[in-house]
Description:
The structure holds 2 protein chains of 2 kinds. Chain A is of the alpha+beta class. Helix content of chain A is 20%, strand content 17%. Chain A has helices spanning 31-35, 79-83, 112-128; strands at residues 12-17, 42-45, 64-67, 89-94, 132-134. In chain A, strands 1-4-5 form a 3-stranded mixed β-sheet, with no helix packed on it. A two-stranded antiparallel ribbon of chain A has the order 2-3.
Amino acid sequence: MAIQIKNLDIPTIRVKVDREKCQLPMICDYKCYTKCPQGVFHVHSYPNVSRAFMKPNPNSPKHYLVAGSAAPKCIGCMECTKHCPEDAITIEIKIPEVKEGENPYKHPFDSIEVAMENQKRIEELDSTYKGLKKI
Amino acid sequence: MCDICFTHNASAKIWFKDAKRYSRFMYHRNRVDLAKKNTKRIKGGTAAIEAAAGPLIAQAIDAYNLKEERFPDLMRAANRLHVQVQGAQTLTLQDSLDLIDISSPVCFIHCECRKFKYGFVERDRSKMTCLGLGIGMLRWQKTPARYVAGAEWVDHDEAREWVIKWNKKGLVQNLMNFGMRNGGPYIGGLCNCSRPDCASIENRLRYGEKQLIKGERVAIHNEEKCTGCFKCIQRCQFGAIAADIRKGKVQIDAQMCFGCGLCESTCEFDAIELRNRRDFPILRYDW
């Protein structure tokens, strides 16, 4: 039995799909669903349970809904935002606080000089991702 | 090691490729130097701190079974102690070959985990799974009362072939470091580990204790190339790979992945790729 302690060092993440932009999931072939290596996205039928008896019609635009329902699994590889034709997906990350003189990425063995050098490279990399929001 | 070696690799992007971490200077430094408030040397040197680590972990494991409220506090204390006393990190095969290149002298030693768990000491040179790096091994040879099988000195070429042999058989390469000094630890060992025997893998996966931290890389797999032969599932020691029956393919949980690269080396279709852990906004905090 593996146990999981709630780890406060890891940032919390939220995957948002804009329902107004993402209206034609059949046309893009569920790119986010197929490209995600972690299986974050799920496809639901759009009408709620109350209308579940409605006759399914996969070609109607509003019939299916893509949702990032398993967001804690997300690793931030940004494949979904890269492939989404409508730019409907945003990924919000809340970064944990760092004390002064500490390694910003909580690596126990990294010296601070190495960490700062990596940080420069990482900030450049993050600016190339679209749909990434840091809170 | 001369002054040139100290400065040679100082700007390495990965911490364990810094040549300073293997040097005589680092080995002889006072270990207690990290607690700057009491700079005087503890009696018994390193053994005193190591002796404190064992009971603390045993307490934490007991608390997990008996008193659940005390478990998180004890575990946090054990984690802090492990960073200062002894830690480990998983390596890829290429990184472990680089590790052998940097350090010298090099020798085969018996596995300490198997000795503590089963009282089993390997004396056959061809079956030894651990490699001692650097100057600390001279002391290892001197005290046969504790280090029973002694040190078997080898060339660098033989050591390299030996690592490749164990990697093919499916063991994970972990580096071992001993004591934090001067902004980083001293690296003194390279182990070939398997899940039930290795104490650090077992403690990490069972109790969440961070003696072993995750490697610098992560395995990301390409669904288009994957054919669903499921050979990689057998190789993973950390239980990160599962069969996705809906797609008839494999799924790798990157949050469980330690980045050892065993799955990548078996895949015949190049469907698995090792990427830098720091490129992912979430995984770069998850060690």
